[in-house]
Design a protein that fits this description.
Layout (H helix, E strand, L loop, with lengths): L10 E6 L14 H5 L5 E3 L4 H13 L4 E6 L11 H4 L18
Length: 103
Amino acid sequence: MSAGQISVPIVFRGPNGAAAGVGAQHSQCFAAWYGSCPGLKVLVPYSSEDARGLLKAVIRDPDPVVFLENELLYGESFPVSAEALDSSFCLPIGKAKNVKEMM
């Protein structure tokens, strides 16, 4: 409604989706619901490397962002590259990561 004249740099971060040991009413995925809100960016990282790089990007973003983490992935181990351990590591928002090549 501000035609881009006002910046709202805020990040909402939290768990999302199915989780172990909770009822159905606590297992919804809200990514599509948040994604239908105009002007709101929604990010859902998969690995710890993705989370690290994308979290840095959303903190620097001038727009409101919802950062949703799959609760079932808490405590999982992922390989982390040396590049991701660099303090300047940041992933671009809006660019997909190919993890499996299509035939």
